[in-house]
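User: I'll paste a sequence; please echo it back and then give the predicted structure.

Assistant: Echoing your sequence first, then the prediction.
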Amino acid sequence: MNFTKEEILGVLDTYDLDNITIATICSHSSLQIFDGARKEGFKTLGICLRAPPKYYDAFPLAKPDEFLVLDRYDELLDKVEELKAKNVIIVPHGSFIAYMGTDKFAQLGLPTFGNRNVLEWESDRKKERQWLVGAGIHMPDVIEDPRDIDGPVMVKYDGAQGGKGFFIAKSYEDFLEHIDDTKTFTIQRFITGTRYYLHYFYSPIKEDGYTLSKGTLEMLSMDRRVESNADEIFRLGSPKELMEAGIIPTYVVTGNAPLVARESLLPLIFELGSRVVEESLKKFGGMIGPFCLETVFTDDLEIKVFEISARIVAGTNLYISGSPYADLVEENLSTGRRIAREIKTAKEMNKLDEIIS
């Protein structure tokens, strides 16, 4: 059973709003989510498998107040009443969605930060492209028939994969050699340039700042992903030598590196973010909270978007004490704290219904 927003708001109506607990799965960006929630005065709850992760003991400021220990993540569906009693609001992140799956997540009858409708548009690459192209975003060309590959392309599987399994093909033969045809995939032309992952925050309830048709848009930080083994492999030789040795580049994300953009690009960066938000308002009622545009900056100073993550991304973990951009909004403002601040502000303004689904 998938829950409607009205049903979720009915649950929220039963809560003691002075005792909200922020909960998420202990992975991905949970350290900053718990740290930010505590700084804004909320209780915290970590969801984990088999035993609380020991590494939290090393980070006391980010250790949740309590843990919910499960054998499988889908057991969370059986704990809904227990979590309602704790006035839990779920903060989803990339691993949360990947571990539970979009179908199971839709069946979770707990108030959740953000708009659940975005999952349908984000997890399906064809719908994602419809959304972004509809917003006037310049995306890489898509090749429908792999037999038409006539130059470098990136082959991506649907859903949050952390880059796992993605590969570059330069010909139909390359494609056949590496494709997993049991998965749904998209073929995009490869764009040369510098990758920038742009971390935005959209608030439908804030009225001051970079205003949109409704609410405001913030730029909190940027990063570049460190990928194994693609970022180091070419130390071993030229692409031809690697191919002859049977060494294939892979793109599994292992970490993140900080970035800032030249200031003259900020108008375009905000324009891209605002277009995406405005189109989301038209298509499914709006994307709420943090999101990331995954882009390539070309040597012509164009910005081409190849994907969107409509939630907090792990690249924001670089900036738990703020960033060169977030510090100009407020000192020590992480994306995790910004989420908690939005929940706190919405509660004070009696507008939780505008940020919860």
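The radius of gyration is 21 Å. Residues 135 and 275 are 5 Å apart (CA to CA).
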